[in-house]
Design brief:
Number of domains: 3
CATH class of the largest domain: Alpha Beta
Shape: globular
Helix content: 40-55%
CATH topology of the largest domain: TIM Barrel
Bound molecules: phosphoenolpyruvate, magnesium ion
Distance between the termini: 22 Å
Radius of gyration: 26 Å
């Protein structure tokens, strides 16, 4: 059986399926006899006791390892567990409806979550996530589900899930995950981005993978074409094993170009940098010949843990990256949480529209105490490498000025303590919101560089959720609206003599390189693995040809027309690339 989804991370994986579904606790509606009611109540009480002891253990561990205020979060969880009204409602429901306790409980808790999430009072509204957390724990204990994490895997598997969070993906690092596939998700969701960084073949947005696949099935994952084959016959297996070999050879051939300078045939030089999420990825950045780090997504440092990293820990992480890259630039982006990246320890309330919500720089400006810890850590690390700071999600000049003001305060704090840092550290803004793209003439006067975040810029300008597979067909980097915004950003930056880079996924696709090069983009930043391919492409075309492609693309009317046109031109200019890639 063949499933078609969205290609998220190239490469071919062949292996056994492992269904990863701890988030999807399946509750079945089972009728029970009148005389089974007391034993169901006992089961419920036992689950409550077990949950209480689990929470107390976590609370103790946290208060031992960090500040007491973090452990206090769990007091709210304990209160939910002890809520007499809730417990009574479950017991009454059991007696009245005579259904199994997990079914009654999930109904009651679902009602509570809904009521709280609709409250006007912000504090009470936030409690809905506590109720949900505790509810899941109780349900897990009622059903007897084993909590599995991806770090528990004992043998190589292909993970099959409804969804995988970016933090779970980060957990796959160096673990036994040789590929993964999900029912939902889009090409530029952070889960997909992370998979690319970790070089794990992945397909997302398959819609029914978890319904059609069982643990133990043999799977082929073709991450470049977005195809998954379930229990293939020998012939197909052979075909894909050959394809896997070809892919490895293609990557190896391209690696020969890793030290090439991205200089076009007619002498136009651009910079090729890499994006990283974890400090460990620096080795891959160097191995693939990137000229620096164009985007270090620091929020991953805050994931998969119960506390927030302190100044010392952040300083060490940034220093390590900066020092390893020696003189090459390292652009550290300040905390960009929100959207599809959640951090449990910061307790951000659930929102109706998380991508448009209280996130990234908005969150940091509202919490200068959290923000300054990071800014001080970055500044201190700037004494050990060529480090630059970049602010995410800037919507306009007012917000940029506020961020720079906090940065100046952090600098002053260090000066007061006589701590060394680069006084002239460069500061840049990500341009990823249409309002910033349209006012970048103003922004360009007050920063040292721009980096275009197309992943968000496209979703906001086209109103297409980047993580939603149902509307993925509308997510078009070549939409004329997007290209006009990109042109405006590059032109405005150049007018003020600042360089303009791009760290969104658009910069990683060879199909778009001619347009971006022709529009005058100065720096392309991407997953380390793509760096050699991009260097090869750029050093094998003429800037003059790219300029003409960009010029003509801007006269076309639809994203589809532009994409077809630019791909055709790329194939004419470098026929080898497509031929070799597609084999
Ligand atoms: C972007 O939005 O293009 C970007 C590079 O940042 P992120 O993908 O982390 O939102
Ligand atoms: Mg972004």
């Amino acid at each position: 059986m063949l499933l078609k989804g969205i290609p998220a991370s190239p490469g071919i994986a062949v292996g056994k399926a492992f269904l990863f579904d701890i988030r999807q606790l399946i509750v079945t509606e089972k009728d029970i006899k009148q005389d089974a009611v007391p034993s169901e109540i006992v089961r419920f009480e036992e689950a409550l006791i077990k949950t209480r002891s689990e929470i107390l253990t976590i609370q103790k561990k946290i208060s031992r390892e960090m500040e007491a205020q973090h452990a206090e979060i769990f007091n709210a969880h304990l209160l939910v567990l002890e809520d007499r009204t809730l417990i009574e409602e479950v017991i009454q429901g059991l007696k009245k409806e005579r259904k199994c306790v997990e079914y009654i409980f999930s109904k009651v808790i679902g009602k509570y979550i809904k009521v709280f999430s609709k409250m006007n009072d912000e504090y009470l509204k936030e409690r809905s996530s506590d109720i949900e957390d505790v509810g899941k724990r109780i349900l897990k204990n009622l059903i007897g589900a084993q909590e599995k994490t991806l770090s528990d895997l004992k043998e190589p598997v292909i993970v099959v899930a409804y969804d995988i969070s970016p933090s779970d993906t980060a957990n796959m690092h160096k673990k036994n995950v040789i590929g993964f596939i999900t029912d939902i998700g889009g090409r530029t969701s952070h889960t997909a981005i992370m998979a690319k960084s970790l070089e794990i073949p992945a397909v997302v947005g398959l819609e029914k993978a978890t319904a059609k696949i069982k643990t133990g099935d043999t799977l082929i994952v073709d991450g470049a074409d977005g195809i998954v084959i379930i229990n293939p016959d020998k012939l197909i297996l052979k075909k894909y094993e050959a394809k896997q070999q070809k892919f490895a050879e293609f990557e190896k051939t391209l690696l020969d170009f890793k030290d090439t300078i991205a200089n076009t045939i007619d002498g136009h030089r651009v910079e090729i940098s890499a994006n990283i999420e974890l400090p460990d990825e620096v080795d891959s950045v160097i191995a693939h010949g990137a000229e620096g780090i164009g985007l270090y997504r620091t929020e991953f440092l805050y994931m998969n843990r119960n506390d927030a990293p302190g100044e010392e820990e952040q300083f060490e992480a940034y220093k390590k990256v900066g020092a390893k890259l020696s003189k090459s630039p390292v652009i550290i982006r300040t905390l960009d949480l929100g959207g599809d990246k959640f951090l449990s320890q910061l307790k951000v309330p659930h929102e109706m529209n998380p991508f448009l919500g209280w996130r990234a720089i908005r969150f940091c400006l509202a919490k200068p105490e959290v923000f300054k810890v990071q800014l001080r850590a970055i500044l201190r690390a700037s004494a050990f490498g060529n480090i630059k700071i970049m602010f995410p999600m800037i919507s306009g000049l007012g917000e940029l000025r506020q961020a720079i003001k906090v940065l100046e305060e952090a600098k002053q704090e260090l000066r007061n303590k006589k701590i060394n840092f680069n006084q002239d550290i460069e500061v840049g803004a990500m341009i990823e919101i249409p309002s910033a793209a349209l006012t970048c003439d103003l922004l360009a006067k007050e920063v040292d560089f721009f980096s275009i975040g197309t992943n968000d810029l496209i979703q906001y300008s086209l109103a297409v959720d980047r993580a939603n597979e149902k509307i993925a067909y509308l997510y078009k980097p070549t939409h004329p609206a997007v290209l006009r915004l990109i042109k405006n950003i590059i032109d405005s930056g150049h007018k003020e003599n600042i360089w303009v880079g791009m760290c969104g996924e658009m910069a990683a696709e060879s199909g778009f390189v001619l347009i971006l090069l022709g529009l005058g983009l100065d720096e392309f930043s991407m997953s380390p693995v793509v760096v050699p391919e991009m260097k090869y492409v750029i050093s094998n075309v003429k800037f003059e040809d790219a300029r003409k492609v960009a010029e003509e693309a801007l006269t076309l009317s639809t994203g589809e027309e532009i994409e077809t046109f630019t791909n055709k031109r790329l194939n004419e200019l470098i026929p080898w690339l497509k031929k070799t890639k597609k084999q």
